[in-house]
Design brief:
Order of helices and strands: EHEHEHEHE
Distance between the termini: 23 Å
Number of strands: 5
Strand content: 15-25%
Radius of gyration: 13 Å
Strand order of the largest sheet: 4-3-2-1-5
Number of helices: 4
C-alpha cells in the first residue's frame, strides 16, 4: 500500500507449469492486501486446469484469459473472464507493477 492507496500488481502468465509460483505470489499479495489482476495468455492458459490455481484466483481483482489462446487449447468454456490483448493492455495501464511468468 502506497500512501493509503492499494498497489495494483498485474501478473501475466504465459508459461505452463508455473502453478506453484503463481499460487505463492497470490498468497503473498493477499497477506499484504495488494490488489492483483492476472492475465493468462499462450500456454499459460493451461494453469486454469488446476483447481488450486482457480481457488487462489477467487479473491483477486480480475482474472482474464486470452480468448484466442484458450480456444487454441480447449473446447469448453473458460473458467475466468475471456478477453483479448486489449484487456492485457488495459491491465498494464492500471498496474503499478507487472510480473511475468
Amino acid at each position: 500500500m502506497a500512501d493509503g492507496v492499494p498497489v495494483m500488481l498485474l501478473i501475466t502468465v504465459s508459461r505452463p507449469r508455473s502453478e506453484s509460483v503463481l499460487r505463492n505470489l497470490l498468497g503473498a499479495c493477499r497477506r499484504k492486501s495488494c490488489d492483483v489482476s492476472v492475465f493468462f495468455t499462450g500456454r499459460g492458459v493451461q494453469l486454469l486446469e488446476d483447481n488450486e490455481v482457480l481457488h487462489a484466483l477467487g479473491d483477486i481483482k480480475e482474472a482474464v484469459a486470452c480468448a484466442d489462446s484458450w480456444k487454441a487449447s480447449y473446447q469448453f468454456d473458460c473458467p475466468v473472464t475471456s478477453g483479448s490483448q486489449t484487456d492485457h493492455s488495459r491491465l498494464i495501464g492500471e498496474a503499478q507493477h507487472v510480473v511475468s511468468l
